[in-house]
Structures are given as structure tokens and as C-alpha cells.
Amino acid sequence: MMTKTKGNKKGIGILLAAILVISVSTVIIASSSVPTAESKIAIEPVATTVSVDPASQTVQPGDTFDVDVRVDDVIFMGADQGTLLFDPTAMQVTGVTEGDFLKTAGSTMGAGMEIIDNVNGEVTFFYTLIAQGVGVDGSGILATIHFQAEPDVECTFPLELTDVILSDGNGNQITIDAINDGTVKIDNTPPTVEILSPYDDVWFDSEDVYVTFHAWDNKADELYYEIYVDGEPYASGMAPNCTETTVDLGILDECDHVISVYVEDYVGKWNESEEVTIHVDLYPPEVEILTPEEGQVYAGSCVILDFTADDVGECPSGIVETYYVLDGGTPVTITGSTTIENLDPCDHTLLVCAVDQVEKEGCDEVIFDVYPGDITGDGKVNIFDLQQLAWAFNSVPGDPNWNEKADLNCDGKVNVFDLQILGWNFGNDYTDMCNLM
Ligand SMILES: [Ca+2]
Ligand SMILES: [Ca+2]
Ligand SMILES: [Ca+2]
Ligand SMILES: [Ca+2]
Predict the structure, then answer these.
(1) Which fold does the domain 192-280 belong to in CATH?
(2) What's the CA gap between 233 and 340, in Å, rounded?
């Protein structure tokens, strides 16, 4: 149990009694004008309040901080007093400064007479206008209490106003409608922050990079944050405490980026998240079809698809899929060069695409014709084509009589299967069949 010193209150009582005695004649005069005052109050009711201001603030252990005691909506105030109770284990009063409010009506008494009790946690002030019959109207600061927080403490501490008395310029007590106590939060715990997305090692496309992080602090309602990209501050703002915050970083340059988030609480305690490394790939793969060649006519019922595909750029994510589409049909997944068989005569459109890890796609397209059996390339299948096939019969690549055009089924040798295809197409006139002139 805390024993509070009462001596200071006796002092105030005597002071106010003196004011009352001096004011007796004025009180009588004032009472004659009461009906007027009452009618005025009836029209414009005011609620006079005395408050701790700010109602709440957060400080760091060892910090100095100020607390105002203020009055609002007072009429004809000539004197004030109050006691602020605090926890002396958490903070100490280093001084009291009289507020400017009362002084606007003239010289005052009481400054320097404040009673600071840092053992029991009480600070008392009392100020009065020296001139009688004078008062101040409105709102303002009665006193500013200067504190220093003790080191190594942490909690929310009440600041309680008690023994608050306001007197009017004639020595009459002014009714106080409300007294608002305050708190001071002493914060000795740094905040924490964790990046929820993006995940480490993830790839980004030409798309905005959103960073979602969770910030926490023991005291703050919101935290100041800075997002760092590659060690440089990139975005900043306020993040609500204990809530997910998402920030759009826009499209980042190609290559790797290290992202981290810094948070700071009200008292300057801070923390940083773990770093997350992301990769950015802004360029689609480049594809080039080598064969079949654009505008070329092929004598087989097949073509050899040969192509190159590279994921270009400074930091490519790499190709994860390649496919071709023939004549707008179903995509066919391939892993490299291949043979496209069973082609109908006439023209074909061939699209070859490569997709990288961020799903960027690059394609190349060729239009070519097949005239099955037309080894000579004159648009007709006849004896001259048969002759060419006969000369190359039983050859393979490297043989002196090898003729790639005579390999009508694209299997790398000229034999009876190619002869068979020629036979099936013998007599065809592709200049007519394919509507060519
Ligand atoms: Ca904190
Ligand atoms: Ca790429
Ligand atoms: Ca021919
Ligand atoms: Ca063949």
C-alpha cells in the first residue's frame, strides 16, 4: 500500500481559501447577475473538461516525454489546480511548466510552487490569476509535466488526474463535467516482420511483383515500413499492426532481386525480415524453324522439322516446353527435331513454339507445300520422278546415289516404301490439285 503525502493538498486549500475571502464582495455582485448567466448557459451549454493530453503516447525506456493537463470549454476561469498520479517505478517527473492559458488574462501565481513527489508518484500544480474579477474563456493548457521513463520498464501505465479544481475569477468553483485520464505506454520490444510472399527462388514474368508481409508490434497500432530491393529502399509507408500488408513494387528488371522488409515502431525500435530472392525473366524464348523452309515444296508425304529454340535475355528462366501446331490443329509436344508424317498434298502452315519457366512463349511459323512423289519438282508425278527414285534406290545418306528428295517417307533410306508412295501418287498433277496456275 502506498501512503500519499497530504501536505501539498493542505497548501492548496489555504491558497484557495484566501482567494475565496478576497472574492466575497465580487461573489455577491456576481450572484446578482446569475439569471443572465443561467439564460446564457441554457442557450449554449458547454461541457467543461480537464484532460491528460495526449490521452496516450508510446515512449521508449529512458526517454523523456511531456504530458499536458488541459482544460476545454471553460468560462471565466481564474484559478486551477490538479494532481497527476503516475507510477514512480516506471517514470519520474523532472519538472512542471505552467501552461499559457491562464496567463492570457494577466499575471499568475503558482509557478515554481509545484509539488513533485517521485516516491509516491504524485505531481501537483496550482495557479491563480493575481487580479480579482478576471478570468479566461475557452480551452488551453493548464500545466505541462515533464517526465523521464525509467530504463528497462515495459507496460502501459495510467496517468490519473485527481483533486482537480477550477475556480472562476470571483472565487466560485466551476463545475467540471468530465476528467479524462491518460496512459503512457513504455515500449521496450522491437517489432517483427515476415515476408509471406513472394517465396524464395520464385520466377516472375513481365508482371507486377507484390510483396505481402506481416508486421507485429507489442504496442504500436501501425508500423513504419520500408521495402528494400537489392539493398536499396524501394517503397515505404505505414502498415497496420498484426495484419498482412501488400505492396505493389511494379515490374522489376530482369535477373535476381533480393527483397527484405524493415519495420519500426513508435519509439524507433526496429527489425528486418529474412531476405527473399526472386528471379525475373522478361523475355520470351526465340524460335527459328530451319526445316521445312518457307515456301519450299517437298516431295515426300512428310517433312523433317528442325528448329532452334533459345530462351534469350540476361537471366533466362529456361525453356520448359516446345510444341508444334500443324495447320491450326492440336499442339504436339516435342523435345527436339522430329519428323512430321502423313501430310496431305498441297500447302501447310507449321507453327513451332517454346515456353519458358515464366510461361512466356516465342514462336516461328513457316508455310510450305508437299507434292508427294514429285521428286523433280515440276508439280507432276510421272516417269521422270520414277526414274529419280530408281537411281537412288537402296541408298542411304552418304552413298553416292543418295537423293534426299527420293526419300518420300523421311526414314533416311530410299527403298520400296518410297516406291510405294510414288506409286500411290503416280499421275498426280499438283499444279491442278493445289489450284496453282
Ligand atoms: Ca514495440
Ligand atoms: Ca525467358
Ligand atoms: Ca515430277
Ligand atoms: Ca524412305
Answers:
(1) Immunoglobulin-like (2.60.40)
(2) 54
Tell me the CA–centroid distance for residue 139 and ligand 2, in Å: 67
* Ligand minimally distant from the alpha carbon of residue 411: 4
Domains of the chain, residue spans: 7-37+48-186, 192-280, 283-370, 373-437
Of the candidate CATH numbers 2.60.40.680, 1.10.645.10, 3.40.50.12780, 2.60.120.620, the domain formed by 7-37+48-186 belongs to 2.60.40.680
Q: Are strands 332-334 and 49-53 parallel, antiparallel or unpaired?
A: unpaired
Which of 210, 405, 375, 159 lies closest to 291, judged by CA?
405
pLDDT score, position 46:
73
**CATH code, 373-437:** 2.60.40.4130
SS3 category, 203: strand
For residues 183 and 158, the answer to whether their CB atoms sit within 8 Å is yes
- What mean pLDDT value characterizes the chain? 90
Evaluate if pTM is beyond 0.70.
no
pLDDT classification of 45: cutoffs 50, 70, 90? low
- Pairwise CA distance, residues 425 & 437, whole Å: 20
Q: In angstroms, rounded to a whole number, what is the distance separating the alpha carbons of residues 270 and 114?
A: 38
Q: Calculate how far, in angstroms, residue 381's C-alpha sits from the geometric centre of ligand 4.
A: 17
Long-range contacts of 382-391 (CB under 8 A, 24+ apart): 382/426, 382/427, 385/299, 385/422, 386/422, 386/426, 389/414, 389/418, 389/419, 389/422
The pLDDT of residue 436 is 57
Residues less than 5 Å from ion ligand 2, measured at CB? 281, 283, 311, 316, 356, 360
Q: Residue 175 and residue 339: Cα distance in Å, rounded?
A: 100
Q: What is the pLDDT of residues 291-321, one digit of tens each?
A: 999 999 999 999 999 999 999 999 999 999 9
